[in-house]
Amino acid sequence: QVQLMEFGGGSVQSGGSLRLSCAASKYTFSSNYCMAWFRQAPGKEREGIGSIDRDGSTSYADSVKGRFTISQDNDKTTLYLQMNSLNPEDTAMYFCALEPGGCYITTDDRFDPRSYNYWGQGTQVTVSS
């Protein structure tokens, strides 16, 4: 069973930065896959914000484009989300997700939570003004 665990959440002031990590285990990363970051604020739906595939191709939601960067370490077992220029609207629980088989072609599908079978428990990010 694939296991994902997020780290690095916390509280930061507006304009600040945080880097989240997602440690993945029990998955063979030489196989095709899609990994993504989602976030969910209280009372709101879970929102896809970025994804990366086996070839390193990334995509981002408009809400974070230019501020957030997704990357992986060399052995692919750790996913990162570098978040810069944070603002209070970024306050949410952040989740990583993995889907074997690769990323969907459209961003609507790629950022749909139903496209992913494996999820971490989440890490809270709070941005104060």
Mean pLDDT: 95
The largest sheet, given as strand count, sense and whether it forms a barrel, is: 7 strands, mixed
Number of helices: 1
Would you count the extended β strands for me? 11
Q: Unreliable stretches, pLDDT < 50, 5 or more residues?
A: none
Helix content: under 10%
**Structural class label:** mainly beta
Q: What order do the helices and strands follow?
A: EEEEEEEEEHEE
Distance separating the two termini? 40 Å
Question: How would you sum up the global shape?
Answer: globular
Radius of gyration over all CA atoms, rounded: 14 Å
State which percent range the strand residues make up.
over 45%
Q: How would you explain this protein's 3D organization?
A:
The chain contains 1 helix and 11 strands. The protein is mainly β. The longest helix has 4 residues. The chain is globular and about 40 Å long. The termini are far apart. The model has no long low-confidence stretch (mean pLDDT 95).
